């Protein structure tokens, strides 16, 4: 899978406008409105001309890009985000010693680069689900029924968190070896690829993240089989981060209600 990067910028607050805001704040001491506390410190920060370099799991591309764009909109900070699978990101971090944050698919994905992690904060739950084409032609009702499937799509267990989860779930159900030896299992590099393939009728079922299931072509099987494998998405600040002001502002921003609303709109739950 090709690694993709995105960036965004907004205009700088004019010096006069900024001064006006400061004066207004001074005159309002002691009589702030009740909702003032809901604003994040990043909203007041002027980070125009500064930038953050962030690694993020490919499965979180859509929600995290909205989060990055909103941070740019509020602060002027340029956000350079690299989206890739965990193995690719881990390799980049260890070989380049560059970057400010790693938004990983699970805490486990930080272990190979733990020497490069300065601190880590929990963001939201990453929920694995069993997905099928909308019509569910193979009548999949749970992990056990995958024994009768003709094609099961999973992430690469060597390089992706969702692939590791799929292998564990199928191994625990004593299905992994038999499905692999019979050629039923097909691996992909990212969870979104699995959801897209299922929507196109290219498989009987697949294990993906909850947020990957969108649109009319794919649906989630109502089963509790994967509940014990829910993960937590961490935001790891890297030791090579250099822009203290931008890093601090973004860490605060990640804990705001505005960011939570974006996660929630994609089906994530609070950690």
From the structure above, extract its key features.
single chain; 271 residues; alpha/beta; D-Maltodextrin-Binding Protein, domain 2; 2 domains; five-stranded mixed sheet; 9 helices; 33% helix; elongated
Distance between the termini: 29 Å
Q: SSE string, helix = H, strand = E?
A: EHHEHEHEEEEHHEHEEEHHE
Extended strand count:
12
Question: Which whole number gives the mean pLDDT?
Answer: 86
Shape: elongated
**Helix proportion range:** 25-40%
Low-confidence stretches: 7-43
Radius of gyration, in Å, reads 21 Å
Strand order of the largest sheet: 1-3-2-4-11-5-12
Biggest β-sheet strands, sense, barrel = 7 strands, mixed
Topology record:
Blueprint: E1 4-6, H1 15-27, H2 41-44, E2 51-57, H3 61-75, E3 78-84, H4 86-96, E4 101-103, E5 117-126, E6 128-133, E7 152-155, H5 161-172, H6 176-181, E8 185-188, H7 191-199, E9 205-209, E10 218-220, E11 231-238, H8 244-253, H9 257-265, E12 269-270
Helix pairs in contact: 3-9
């Amino acid at each position: 899978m090709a690694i993709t990067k995105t960036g965004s910028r907004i205009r700088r607050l004019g010096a006069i406008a900024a001064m006006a805001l400061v004066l207004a704040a001074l005159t309002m001491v002691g009589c702030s409105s009740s909702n003032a506390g809901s604003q994040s410190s990043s909203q007041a920060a002027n980070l125009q001309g500064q930038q953050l370099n962030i690694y993020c799991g490919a499965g979180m591309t859509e929600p995290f890009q909205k989060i990055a764009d909103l941070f740019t909109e509020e602060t002027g900070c340029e956000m350079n985000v690299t989206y890739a699978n965990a193995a690719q990101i881990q390799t980049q971090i260890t070989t380049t010693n560059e970057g400010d944050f790693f938004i990983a698919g699970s805490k486990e994905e930080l272990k190979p680069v733990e020497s490069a992690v300065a601190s880590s904060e929990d963001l939201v739950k990453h929920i694995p689900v069993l997905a099928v084409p909308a019509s569910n032609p193979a009548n999949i009702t749970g992990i056990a029924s995958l024994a009768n499937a003709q094609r099961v799509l999973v992430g690469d267990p060597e390089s992706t968190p969702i692939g590791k989860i799929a292998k564990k779930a199928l191994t625990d159900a004593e299905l992994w070896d038999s499905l692999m030896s019979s050629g039923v299992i097909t691996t992909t590099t990212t969870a979104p690829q699995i959801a897209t393939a299922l929507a196109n009728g290219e498989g009987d079922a697949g294990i993906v993240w909850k947020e990957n299931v969108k649109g009319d072509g794919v649906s989630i099987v109502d089963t509790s089989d994967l509940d014990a494998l829910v993960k937590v998405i961490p935001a790891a600040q890297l030791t090579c981060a250099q822009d203290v002001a931008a890093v601090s502002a973004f860490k605060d921003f990640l804990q705001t209600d505005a960011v939570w609303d974006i996660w929630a709109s994609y089906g994530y739950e609070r950690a």
